[in-house]
Amino acid sequence: MVDVAPITTSKVQLQPLPNFDFADPFIFSMEVIAAVLAFVVALHFYRFYRLSGFVYLLGLVIGFSFITFAEFLLAIDVWLEFNPEIFNLLFWLRLLSLSYGFSFIAVSYYYKHREEDRIPWIMRIGALSVIPIMIMIALVVILPPAFDFPPYNQADEYFRVFNLIMLGYVFKSTLSSIVEQGRKEFMYIPAAYAILWLGQYSALISNLELNVGAFIAQHIAKVIGLALFVGVLSQIMKTKKVTKTETGT
Amino acid sequence: MIGQDLQRRERRHKLQIYYDILSAILEEAMNEGGAKPTRIQHLSNMSYDKLSRYLDELEAKKMINKADTLSLTEHGHEFLKEYEKIKDLIERMGLE
Fold it and tell me: Which residue of B has its CA nearest to A243?
């Protein structure tokens, strides 16, 4: 069975987290693996962005970099044994980074067909990514108790729902594209986004019900989803070069 | 819907158009010692206005050098080498 461990700061008592013997090493190892995987994905996208110059790929680079940062923050939090002084701050940063990352990814997909627009892409991606995040923060701060910066886990549910919407949109976008291409062998990426979606859904359930199954599922789903990205990108890197031009250099 | 389809076709073509233009420049440079825009226009089968726009884009992305004749930069060569990978990425990621 799962015990609960209340975490108290000088101002607030935070909602308890699941607490079982293997929780800390489990979270730490999962977060470190997830951070490394997300970093590898970001690096791959950066390479393709640099090669092609397509700015929407930059959105994916930034998105996965934020996810890397978010996972890294939680790993630090575990490493510091959930130090009450900075626990709330680190979790707020983590929530923001994760949602910001998913926003960038979603905006990249939204703008994938609009490269000819006159306004520089990076400005559009940046602005449109910030807007939903700022709205979320405003709602969190304005909702009762007004102007009282709340413990992270009161906002956690809003952020998780926001992440679910972003990932749902990306999943729909990738699935439509793959179906349109008629390439069933390309289903790994929609599957990866669906697994990340399940991870966020499990996190929501875990937060609402302190369910240990959902708590474990959120971490495992995240690692599997990111591992799928790494697998697909590694496969792409093995794609045969164009013979015609190999002789030209 | 029609607008979206047109945009999609435009973007899908863009990767291919980049490849066609850069391949033509490379081929001309290898065979003739230099690539003239009129010759690239003929080889890539597009209007001069459209070609000019794409040449500007490719120059902005540092893939070609525009002088009396056109030539590929190192980045342009790299794009051609890795074209299949970029195409594969765009398709697999659902960015098509």
Answer: B81
